């Protein structure tokens, strides 16, 4: 579950970027996997979501949000769950070493 303590406060200026997202109005099932989805079906769905993200004008803001909030599910900012998990784990390792 997303840790809401890392989310920005409910101020429109902080969230306005979402209005410009290419995913706005799209079926959320493209970005979030159904239970037990595996293999090529999951890859195909995730690749479709990433294609939508690729041309998104707010890709960087979305990606930043997903990493800061440590979004556990779905495609955010053109990155899947595993990609974000690796980046977050790497950042934690660097913090422990420092």
From TrEMBL:
It comes from Umezawaea tangerina. It comes from the Bacteria. The keyword Transcription applies. GO terms for molecular function: 4 iron, 4 sulfur cluster binding; dinitrosyl-iron complex binding; DNA binding; metal ion binding; protein-disulfide reductase [NAD(P)H] activity. Acts as a transcriptional regulator. Probably redox-responsive. The apo- but not holo-form probably binds DNA. One of its GO terms (cellular component) is cytoplasm. One of its GO terms (biological process) is cell redox homeostasis. Residues 22-86 form the 4Fe-4S Wbl-type domain. Keywords: 4Fe-4S, Cytoplasm, Disulfide bond, DNA-binding, Iron, Iron-sulfur, Metal-binding, Transcription, Transcription regulation. It is found in: Cytoplasm. Its cofactor is [4Fe-4S] cluster. PROSITE patterns: 4FE4S_WBL. The Fe-S cluster can be nitrosylated by nitric oxide (NO). This is Transcriptional regulator WhiB.
